[in-house]
């Protein structure tokens, strides 16, 4: 049996594409193992897939001053030697990395062990972890044509992002029951603020509820610890910290999605042809990758973009009205997108690398 080690973590965005690949890899005869951090978000997500999980020491490499910058490099070095031992024990034919800082020692260890490593970059510009890993990679997969110029010639492959196939098969009736909507004639707006939620988005949506609920039902994924108990019995408003298997049903029911602009999230919206408003994480709170992602989708006609600094009740309400008035135009643009079969493309690269090993 062929063997593959997958890695990636820190956020769900560094894990869910790996999970999306797993059914296809299993059907191709791969035995899958996973290397992640000791207690990162990836641990629970991967163990739920019944995949052997190995934790290693992991440190974050920051672009800004932090006292942890003095200790974290030693954690990365420890993780590197742990990864070498694990790869020699598992003996994989190939390593696949979705990024995040835990993946760096694994990819470097793969090169040391002469195991081909394929990495995937979701955003338009490579993040620091992938920048460190690219020299040790055999191939680098990417989502956007714009990314190709940032990657070494001969390594870069435009594949798109693997989408969990279950998202394409949601049942709207299940979401109606879960949300207990009484008036099912109203169109539904789904708000996704990320795993930690967005204060700006959450506040604007809740301030606008009296106006929005006249015309729409609302599903609000507000992030961990952000439920508003005073609104729990509001008819037409269903709030959840997050959604797992239920997300496919929520997508199926939604007529419009308001979302952050993480690369995996927007690729899911594109695959589902969902009219959407993107509110990217501000440059003040990130390296600006979500802004680049959102602008790429806006220029392609897939999305309406509202900068976080510009989120006001009036601006958000105008954005919702605009997208609903022009939703057919957005759907048509997404239907014309020349998306590749990302899962097939990536599995083919993995197979090629494994055969050459």
Describe the protein in words.
This protein is α/β, with parallel strands linked by helices and 357 residues long. 40% of the residues lie in helices and 16% in strands. A seven-stranded parallel sheet has the order 3-2-1-4-5-6-7, with helices on both faces. Strands 10-9-8-11-12-13 form a six-stranded parallel sheet, sandwiched between helices. Helix 1 crosses helix 13, helix 3 packs across helix 4 and helix 6 crosses helix 8. The model has no long low-confidence stretch (mean pLDDT 91).
Largest sheet descriptor: 7 strands, parallel
Number of strands: 13
CATH class descriptor of the largest domain: Alpha Beta
CATH architecture term of the largest domain:
3-Layer(aba) Sandwich
List the helices and strands and how they pair.
Blueprint: E1 2-7, H1 16-27, E2 30-37, H2 41-47, E3 53-56, H3 72-90, E4 94-97, H4 103-112, E5 117-121, H5 128-133, E6 139-142, E7 156-158, H6 172-179, E8 188-192, H7 199-212, E9 217-221, E10 237-240, H8 246-253, E11 256-259, H9 263-272, E12 276-278, H10 289-299, E13 304-305, H11 313-325, H12 327-335, H13 342-356
Helix pairs in contact: 1-13, 3-4, 6-8
């Amino acid at each position: 049996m062929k063997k593959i080690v997958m890695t990636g973590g820190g956020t769900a965005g560094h894990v869910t594409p790996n999970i999306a690949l797993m059914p296809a890899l299993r059907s191709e005869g791969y035995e899958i193992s996973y290397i992640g951090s000791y207690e990162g978000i990836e641990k629970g997500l991967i163990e739920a897939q019944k995949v052997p999980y190995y934790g290693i020491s992991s440190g974050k490499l920051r672009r800004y001053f932090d006292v942890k910058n003095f200790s974290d490099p030693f954690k990365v070095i420890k993780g590197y030697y742990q990864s070498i031992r694990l790869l020699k024990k598992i003996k994989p034919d190939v390593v696949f990395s979705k990024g995040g800082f835990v993946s760096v020692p694994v990819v470097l260890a793969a090169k040391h062990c002469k195991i081909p490593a394929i990495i995937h970059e979701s955003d338009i510009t490579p993040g620091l972890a992938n920048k460190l890993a690219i020299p040790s990679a055999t191939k680098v997969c990417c989502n956007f044509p714009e990314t190709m110029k940032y990657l070494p010639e001969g390594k870069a492959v435009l594949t798109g992002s693997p989408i969990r196939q279950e998202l394409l098969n949601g049942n709207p009736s299940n979401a109606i029951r879960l949300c207990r909507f009484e008036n099912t004639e109203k169109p539904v707006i789904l708000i996704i603020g990320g795993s930690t939620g967005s204060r700006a988005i959450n506040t604007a949506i809740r301030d606008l509820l009296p106006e929005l609920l006249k015309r729409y039902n609302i599903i609000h994924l507000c992030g961990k610890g952000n439920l508003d108990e005073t609104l729990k019995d509001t008819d037409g408003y269903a709030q959840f910290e997050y959604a797992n298997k239920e997300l496919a049903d929520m997508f199926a029911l939604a007529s419009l999605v308001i979302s952050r602009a993480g690369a995996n999230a927007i690729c899911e919206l594109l695959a589902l042809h969902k009219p959407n408003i993107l509110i990217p994480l501000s440059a003040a709170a990130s390296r600006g990758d979500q802004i680049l992602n959102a602008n790429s989708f806006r220029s392609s006609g897939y999305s309406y973009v509202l900068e976080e600094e510009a989120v006001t009740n009036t601006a958000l309400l105008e954005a919702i009205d605009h997208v609903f008035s022009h939703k057919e135009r957005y759907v048509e643009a997404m239907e014309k997108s020349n998306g590749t079969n990302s899962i097939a493309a990536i599995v083919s690269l993995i197979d090629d690398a494994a055969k050459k090993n």
